[in-house]
Amino acid sequence: MYSEKVMQHFATPQNVGVIEDADGVGEVGNPVCGDMMTFYIKVNNGKIEDVKYQTFGCVAAIAVSSQVSELVKGKTLEEAKSLTKGVVAEALGGLPKQKMHCSNLGADALARAIHDYETRTHGQHPCPHREN
Ligand code: FES
Ligand code: FES
Prior knowledge:
The protein is α+β, with helices and mostly antiparallel strands. It is built from five helices and three strands. This is Iron-sulfur cluster assembly scaffold protein NifU.
């Protein structure tokens, strides 16, 4: 049911772990299945210098987090923000329809980590969320 790429990521997930002194942390949970994903990013010069994650979830969720980490490492924050679940699923050679919701977790957790970073660095960028 899963593509070869998904099984590869599941067998040898890349960039697993925690960044203790992360510049941004983003956590999401899927209320339906109870799966959890946390992304950690290190930002330098507007680029994601390092990225790690912890995922407690299904095969698809683990493959998605591994794929997301590979896709955004070294990318600018703007590039990373444009990552969608569709892009992630495509990079994985597709996901079964009933597993598409799992790919949401990856893009969402990363987006939250970026937002956390931007919240911490308020004042260093023109921020639409300033009043929050
Ligand atoms: Fe929960 Fe995949 S079944 S994220
Ligand atoms: Fe969201 Fe600044 S962009 S806090």
